[in-house]
Amino acid sequence: MTNPAERLVDLLDLEQIEVNIFRGASPQESLQRVFGGQVAGQALVAAGRTTEGDRPVHSLHAYFLRPGIPGVPIVYQVERVRDGRSFTTRRVTAVQQGKTIFNLTASFHRPEEGGIEHQLPPRLDFPHPDTLPKVADEIRAHLGALPEALERMARRQPFDIRYADRLRWTPEELKGADPRSAVWMRAVGPLGDDPLVHTCALTYASDMTLLDAVRLPVEPLWGTRGFDMASLDHAMWFHRPFRADEWFLYDQESPIAHGGRGLARGRIYDLEGRLLVSVVQEGLFRPYPSGRPQPPAAAEPTPKS
Question: 134 pLDDT exceeds 50?
Answer without folding.
Answer: yes
